[in-house]
Amino acid sequence: MFFMRLILASFLGVILLLPFFADAATVRIKDITDMEGVRSNQLIGYGLVVGLNGTGDRLTNSIFTRETLISMLNRLGVNIRNQETQLQTHDVAAVMVTADLPAFTHGGNRIDVTVSAAGDSSSLTGGTLLVTPLMAADGEVYAVAQGSLATNAFTARGAAASITRNVPTSGHITNGAVVEREVPFDLAHRHSLHLSLRNPDLTTASRIAAVINRTLGYIASVQDPRTVLINLTTNDPITTLARIGDLTVTPDSPAKVIIDEASGTIIMGADVRISTVAVSQGNLTVQVTETPEVSQPGPFSDGQTAIVPRTNINVDTGKNHHLTVLPTGATLRELVSGLNALGVGPRDMISILQAIKADGALQAELEMR
């Protein structure tokens, strides 16, 4: 009987603690930080797509496509530059090829590429990208792309209507480029490394350093709200970084309200608080509707058909919109509930939040976009 009571008490204690654990959302350090120097590099190239079904560039309009095609044919031993015949093909398109070279990618690895039309081509569906060197910002070639495109788009046309699904002038080639040059980064012999927070916050950086020092010894120190320095001189760098990445912390975030006036979007963080403030919303609205009617004379009469105006006027004084008082320290849920009780939409809510901030009652950063 004693053991049954003990088990029941433990079970109830776990249930009572569940809400506290639910509120404290923890994340892994590797999910909110980046390692210094470990990043991808952007690549770009210019090439030709062939095999299009009459949807390529018009060579009379896209001069760069015509010159590129002539130069490529000359390199392949086909000399048409001095010929009097005019190129009329519509199955070739000039394209820009882009790709990301991930960190720790070695020669011979394959990466995905994106192909986008550069001329007046209407569709790249069914095309094949010819050999295209991909260069980085330093002008060096790091990969070479070639392969068949997949656009996941289609176009259907008729005499009086057409339909296009997705974007037929942009395609993708999975594993379409072979890496020829790698970006060296010696992670195994680093003596120190910086962890960069994706959302800079001094509290979060301090928590990261604290959990690392508590688990692995004093090897972490906070440099600024974005940077945590890791000392790797006394430990194996790879093993240490792997263990650090799996450690969990509870990130902190500043109280912020983000407003996008163009789309009417409002985003408020969980820590947004307001001081005591009274809010009322409602304007005088006058709606005038004209619905003219046609008056016809009786049969066999000398009357004339006339249009008789009819006007409907509705006035909304906002009498159903009441003054709402939000108490000191109101939470995000109370703030939203209070504004929804007034029957306001996103546009009106933006004006109310701006007015609350101007009054000094909104204890959060207001960011307009």
Automatic annotation (TrEMBL):
The keyword Signal applies. Keywords: Bacterial flagellum, Cell projection, Cilium, Flagellum, Periplasm, Signal. It is found in: Bacterial flagellum basal body. Belongs to the FlgI family. GO terms for cellular component: bacterial-type flagellum basal body, distal rod, P ring; outer membrane-bounded periplasmic space. Its main location: other. The keyword Acetylation does not apply. This is Flagellar P-ring protein. Assembles around the rod to form the L-ring and probably protects the motor/basal body from shearing forces during rotation. GO terms for biological process: bacterial-type flagellum-dependent cell motility. The basal body constitutes a major portion of the flagellar organelle and consists of four rings (L,P,S, and M) mounted on a central rod. HAMAP family: FlgI (MF_00416). GO terms for molecular function: structural molecule activity.
